[in-house]
Amino acid sequence: QVQLVESGGGLVQAGGSLRLSCAASGRTFSIYRMGWFRQAPGKEREFVAAINWSTGITFYADSVKGRFTISRDNAKDTVYLQMNSLKPEDTAVYCCAAGLRPGVFRLVNSYEYWGQGTQVTVSS
Questions:
Q1: Which of 59, 70, 83, 110 shows the greatest Cβ crowding within 10 Å of its Cβ?
Q2: Are 6 and 20 in contact (CB under 8 A)?
Q3: Per-residue CA distances from 73 to 10, 56, 120 (Å)
Q4: Contact by Cβ (8 Å): 24, 8
Q5: Other C-beta atoms within 10 Å of 23: how many?
Q6: Which of 6-10, 26-30, 70-74, 87-91 is the least confident region?
């Protein structure tokens, strides 16, 4: 089992920045990949970013590339999402997820464990 707890969400004006954190606990040695997904009201959950836990190789959705940065601190079993130049369309509940096996990084079913999520609201 892996437990995930997100923090760092909030309300920010367009153009502002936020940093999300996701602390993992439990069988963290089994993590292969960590990802961030988001879900806006009335929309499906969508991929935002992912990072290979051992190599640090990162992947991004086109909509956030150049604005968001995913990183990890293996010593703290924590993954971060630095979000800059935020737009109103970034408003959503952001969830982190842990995948234990190789797979397609942008697919929801490539991740076995999920956090509860943290709300990010960007005002115009």
A1: 83
A2: yes
A3: 22, 10, 22
A4: no
A5: 17
A6: 26-30
Give the amino acid at 85. Answer: S
- Tell me phi and psi for residue 87, to 5 degrees: -120, 155
Cα-based distances in Å from 114 to 14, 63, 88, 96? 28, 22, 25, 6
For the stretch 24-69, pLDDT in tens is 999 998 999 999 999 999 999 999 999 999 999 999 999 999 999 9
Q: Give per-residue pLDDT as tens, 77-117.
A: 999 999 999 999 999 999 999 999 998 999 999 999 999 99
DSSP reduced 3-state for 92 = strand
Our CA angle for 68, 96, 87, nearest 5°, is: 35
Helix (H, G, I), strand (E, B) or coil at 110: helix
Helix (H, G, I), strand (E, B) or coil at 90: helix
Structure tokens at 62: 């086109």
Amino acid symbol at 114: W
